[in-house]
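We give the chain.
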Amino acid sequence: MPRSKNKVASKARRKKVLAMAKGSFGRRKNVFTVAKNSVEKGLTHAYVGRKLKKRDFRALWIQRINAAARQHGMSYSVLMGRLTSSGVDLDRKALAELAYSDPAAFKAVVDKVK
């Protein structure tokens, strides 16, 4: 009995990898072994990037809140401490959006905790 190689699944797997490598330059887009390495590294970077995005956005929100709070004579740490002690439940994302798009509302929040 001849050996079964399961060509259908092998070809589908290779096609999937080459489809993910589409848009790459040179042999990365059409040579399977090179494309496989490129795709694996790309997926690794994508995974790490999803974690870094959360870190970067949190840092951006903190910078925006700090800049807006200092315009009202208060530092970021003092503002956040007073927000928690006064029971205002606004997260950093919402506060940063207020500071960026609606400075009057942010001033009202700062005045409430002063």
User: Anything to note?
Assistant: The mean pLDDT is 95.
